[in-house]
Write a structure and sequence with these properties.
mainly alpha, elongated
Amino acid sequence: MIKNERQNTVPMVKDGMRRWFFRALGFFFAAGCIGALLRLIYVVEMPWLTFKPWLHAHSHVAMLGWLFPALLIALIGQDDRRPPRGFAVWMVISQALVLGMLFSFPVQGYGETSIACSTGQMLVGYVLIGQAWYATRHWPPRAAACSRGSPSPSRSSAPSASGPWGPS
């Protein structure tokens, strides 16, 4: 019975990961639309569009709304086990913060709301990286993307994320 129960949960887990991937794909589409708009500025005059804030929205949405979740989903989706407890909640918070960046960067650039969303997403990202580390702890060391011998996501993201925590 346990074997059948486990076999029945695998498609459900894969469907859940697929849904998260399609949500991330929506941010890829949004980043692509913003990128096309930014390239169009050199062809068509758009005095209402300020380049830098839209560029910040484009890059933050592309990296934090598409690439980061897609890599997490690809990593955690490799396993037949359920995602870590609370994964869905943290992903919802992460995606909501990226939506906040999508709408706040074009309006205010690096203002209070966009900085708060960026900082919040970075903190949530730490939690999600920790969950991915925990979810893959049973993998053999050579097969694990985050084995002790290879650079971990937390170690490789630390230099880029140290800016807000460093001296001002």
